[in-house]
Write a structure and sequence with these properties.
The structure holds 2 protein chains of 2 kinds. By secondary structure, chain A is mainly β. Chain A is built from no helices and 11 strands.
């Protein structure tokens, strides 16, 4: 079974530029998560989708971050304009649903963003 | 809101030593609990899980028991190896599938 795919693996941009990250979840997984992991910290949930609907985006800085999941499969996360404090690893994860409450989340390798 | 708190690191051990990483949670209802591991340069991997009270998750010699009475899910391994050096994250998943992580504990095992 193919895992969660993310691209790019690394990205360096200047502040005020824009950047986009792409995620392809495991086939059939209804739930998709985007996390931000700053060096030395635990992952922080940015947005959670169930199919193509947003379940939770309470911690997404909506003035600069946006995300979409068209057709309930692939997802993109965009930052515009980027700030220095956005330097982090952006993790995508997916999980399936079942009548007993779902399975664990599987994570991609992440995209390491450096804003200079 | 729902959250997990895990012991701060870093933790440095010698090979074959006993490892414990404490994790406590705050949640409404009955969340599922997980330990994830992040090896250097790699992504997050599920180490073990427990979905209800008194469940014991185990994998690769690691164990953790879901203790509802103490709201805890401590990770233990009886004899660590150098290859266990990694960052360990305790996590909680609510029934709406929201998944929250602790801050992580860095473990270094010396030969």
């Amino acid at each position: 079974e193919a895992g969660v795919a993310q691209s790019p693996r690394y990205k360096i941009i200047e502040k005020r530029q824009s950047v986009a990250f792409w995620c392809n979840p495991i086939s059939g997984h209804a739930t998709l998560y985007w996390y931000q992991q700053i060096l030395g910290q635990g992952p922080k949930l940015l947005i959670q989708f169930q199919n193509n609907g947003v379940v939770d985006d309470s911690q997404l800085p909506k003035d600069r971050f946006s995300a979409e999941r068209l057709k309930g499969v692939d997802s993109t996360l965009k930052i515009q304009p980027a700030k220095l404090e956005d330097s982090a690893v952006y993790l995508c994860a997916s999980s399936s649903l079942n009548v007993r409450g779902g399975t664990e989340a599987f994570f991609g390798q992440g995209t390491r963003l450096t804003v200079v | 809101g729902d959250s997990v708190t895990q012991m701060e690191g870093p933790v440095t051990l010698s090979e074959e030593a006993f490892l414990t990483i404490n994790c406590t949670y705050t949640a409404t209802g009955y969340p599922s609990l997980f330990w994830y591991v992040q090896y250097p340069g790699e992504g997050l991997q599920l180490l073990l899980k427990a979905t209800k009270a008194d469940d014991k998750g185990s994998n690769k010699g690691f164990e953790a028991t879901y203790r509802k009475e103490t709201t805890s899910f401590h990770l233990e391994k009886g004899s660590v190896q150098v290859s266990d050096s990694a960052v360990y994250f305790c996590a909680l998943r609510r029934r709406d599938y929201k998944l929250s992580f602790g801050a992580g504990t860095t473990v270094t095992v010396r030969a």
